[in-house]
Amino acid sequence: MIFGSMNAAASGLTAERLRMDVIAQNLANVDTTVTPQGGPYRREMVVMEPMPLTTTQPGGVEVAAVIGDPTPFPLRYDPGAPGANAQGYVRMPNVNVTAEMVDLLAASRAYGASATAFSDFVKEGRKALQL
Questions:
Q1: Can you name the residues that pair with 50 across neighbouring β-strands?
Q2: Which one, 1, 65, 84, 116, has the greatest CB density within 10 A?
């Protein structure tokens, strides 16, 4: 049972690490107006889902997908920019720095909670082996 609990905590560590990586990528592309696919960078989001709780699987979380944020691209008036339209507006990435920082804080806290749980399971396992 203790190894199952460790696996559940480890799944949280893995999922939250990916979430932080995606957030970092979003922040790195906050000003990217032209991508290889054309158009501005589209914010990405991590979709997680619970792993089924069975007699052999203790549950946990897994990444179901990394999807693009469907919100529209904001326009910024910059007539001198190379990608400006006829009216002088440039389509900007749909990345909100404040929202990304809040998401990063939440992911960091969830990662820390999973790390603490994992560490506690390891400590309990060591105690059980010493008896």
A1: 61
A2: 84
